[in-house]
Amino acid sequence: MKDDYNLLIKCITSVNEIAHEIIVVDTGSKDNSEVLANQYGASVYPYEWSNNFSNVRNYAMKKATGDWILFIDADEILPQQSKCQLVRLLVEAEADAYYLNVITFLDQNITYLNCISQNSCRLIKKNNKYQYNGCIYESVIESIINSGGVIKYAQIKILHLHYLRSIEQLYEKKTYQVEYY
User: Fold this and answer.
1) Residue 171 scores a pLDDT above 70
2) N or C end of the chain, less CB within 10 A?
3) What is the pLDDT of residue 139?
């Protein structure tokens, strides 16, 4: 997370009733996001940005104490229906990780006609052998498979709200991301 004050409340409150712990890794916020995260019950860990998203996710995995880790970005939310599905899935888990359906809305018009959908491995059983790889498009899939883990698909949605930001916020985020390509 970096400077996601406006969307962070939505993210944290979308998972706080089902999460045993909420871990936020802050890569250098200047907008008091870390204070807000603490106020909403998250444990915030500062992390010096190293131009590598995998390093940030791996750091978060090391801090997690639960059996399962749900990776959700500060500009994403877990809708109510997905919360119920997630709780049921973890009771009956038949895999070591799950692909979840990440739906990205493309502009302020929030409809399923104006979005893209992709499966992303976001729910992972805690295992020290699992590591994210890749600076920008980080992935844990190879690590899970090479460790003998099983990945399955789950019909659980995560809503990605990145493009619902103001034009100014989008420009700032784009500048931040482009600097590291």
Assistant:
1) no
2) C
3) 95
